[in-house]
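Key idea: predict the complex, not the pieces.
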Amino acid sequence: DVKVTQSSRYLVKRTGEKVFLECVQDMDHENMFWYRQDPGLGLRLIYFSYDVKMKEKGDIPEGYSVSREKKERFSLILESASTNQTSMYLCASSHQPGQGRRASGRADHEQYFGPGTRLTVT
Amino acid sequence: AQSVTQPDIHITVSEGASLELRCNYSYGATPYLFWYVQSPGQGLQLLLKYFSGDTLVQGIKGFEAEFKRSQSSFNLRKPSVHWSDAAEYFCAVGVTGGFKTIFGAGTRLFVKA
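Result:
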């Protein structure tokens, strides 16, 4: 059974704290993603990674950074948490045939999601 | 710019009734289209996807969706809803040439007995 796990289901942090959200997938997927989910806005892409140590900004990267040191693990970092970062954070992974950033050129790959981390910043 | 619109924020249907959730997309090329479902407290799970070929796509849990290019729509249907179908449903478009998937805002389905 394929699985994407996230380190915490619920997290409460104070303004200004550094926050780490961890995501691990066991499917040997090349691509990994971090989204935030807010009511009425759907899922918005923060960052994604198509290979180890590679990352690209999504639609809302401000205030976030990421790290991918191993293929199975993708971390989201809030350098200095703020109240407007209170949200549900979803990690996902997908398979990408071929090698490199543009090898596939297609976006038909199902994404597998973790259960989410509900982060509250007070 | 690519976008996905789900016009209904929430829908309530009676158990056993039919269901249709609407999705419209804006995309210049041939779209890759998806429907995902999110049960309470869970991540998203793929219901079905369309890439090419037959415009009527069958998915899991008895769901189907029909791609209509002329209407830029990809509506999700189920002939008879079960209480366990209560969840949030997301329509999504895969962007060719990249890795992005654009999600709609979601439609929350309530099922009444």
